[in-house]
Amino acid sequence: MFAGCIFTCTFWAICPFTEDVASLPIAAWIPFKTDSSPSFELAFAYEIIATVIGGITDLNADCFMAGFIMVVCAQMKILNDSLLNLRHFAVEELNAETGGNNDDDGIAEELQKIMNRKLVECVHHHRYILEFAEEANSLFTTSILGQFAVSVIIICTTLFEMTLVPFASIKFISLILYQYCMLMEIFIVCYFGNEVILESSKLTKYAYHSDWRDCSQEFKRNLLFFMTRSQRALKLYAGGFFTLSLDTYVKILKSSWSYFVVLIQVNKDSG
């Protein structure tokens, strides 16, 4: 995404030099005349620098939001691994304490205590993940919703503008790069939000495969409690309306395409 942002700004800076009449990269109100030197060069440099700074700032904000979602996803993967290898980790800890193998014909009493303690740690770990996810979601839910709404408009209008410029021109390439940035901007949050759903939906399965059959009744009760609590997959939302998932990403693309088709039709009718 960073490379896409830099290349987009670079092509925007090149575009005015490919036209017959010199113009600024972005149509904007400037509080002085820009039809002569050095005012034109100053305005040109100002717009390019401002665009680069704005693009990088927006990119950092996107990565910051995606980073929180990635943390939730990574913690879910760690929790799944802890559940699946619960006995293995308990045996390792017991062997480190006693210096021998205590997992032969049955489960030693000490091993049962360690397994139950580790299961309780997994329960607490799951609770901490849910609390962190809720805090992170409440922090970014409104901004992500706004990003989705703006992205639909930008993707649609960029597609429309691409139909108005010569194919393979510098302007056309700059629009492709800009479109790539906009698509990736919402893709990263939707992708990792979808990964959170997938990883959290595996908790019950991995808990069931934690080799619990010959464990104590206390362990089985705690395991049943955890499996009951983790049956519902963790979902992050944009504004409380849209789930951060690949399905939502596809819906955004479909909406953008629908509005693009409408714009094309309106343009034909008005022409």
Helix content: over 70%
- Strand segment count: 2
Distance between the termini: 37 Å
Mean pLDDT: 87
Number of domains: 1
What is the ordering of alpha helices and beta strands?
A: HHHHHHHEEH
Shape: elongated
Content of β-strand: under 5%
* Structural class computed from helices and strand pairing: mainly alpha
The strand order across the widest sheet is 1-2
Low-confidence stretches: none
Radius of gyration: 27 Å
Largest sheet: 2 strands, antiparallel
Give me the number of helical elements. 8
Task: Give structural notes.
- The chain has 271 residues and is mostly helical.
- It has one domain (68-270).
- The chain contains eight helices and two strands; from the N terminus they run H-H-H-H-H-H-H-E-E-H.
- It has helices at 2-14, 39-84, 86-98, 109-162, 170-201, 203-208, 217-229, 246-270, and strands at 237-238, 242-243.
- The protein has a two-stranded antiparallel ribbon with strand order 1-2.
- Helix 1 runs antiparallel to helix 2.
- The longest helix is centred in the middle third of the chain and has 54 residues, at 109-162.
- The two termini are 37 Å apart.
- The model has no long low-confidence stretch (mean pLDDT 87).
